[in-house]
Write a structure and sequence with these properties.
By secondary structure, the chain is mainly alpha-helical. It contains three helices and no strands. Helices cover about 85% and strands about 0% of the residues. The protein is flat and about 60 Å long.
Length: about 80
């Protein structure tokens, strides 16, 4: 196996990990949303769905953190 093949596999793995990270996904969605006017209607609606899904994930995470914070304040486990 050549060096170029190893580098290509490493880059693919690195990119897959980056794409699975919530901050990276959010940044990509926001960048895509900036040019939504140029998108065909079907792609625009898919982007809107992905943005709404990301917002729901953030909402759930914030609610979970809020519950933990309330337990910490109350001194509960």
């Amino acid at each position: 196996m050549g060096n170029a093949e190893r580098q290509a596999r490493w880059r693919a793995k690195r990119n897959a990990l980056a794409r699975s990270h919530p901050d990276v996904i959010e940044r990509e969605l926001v960048q895509a949303a900036e040019g939504f006017e140029r998108l065909p209607e079907r792609e625009r609606l898919q982007l809107a769905d992905r943005l709404a899904d990301a917002a729901m994930v953030h909402l759930r995470r914030s609610q979970e953190l809020s519950r933990v914070a309330m337990k910490v304040r109350a001194g509960e486990r």
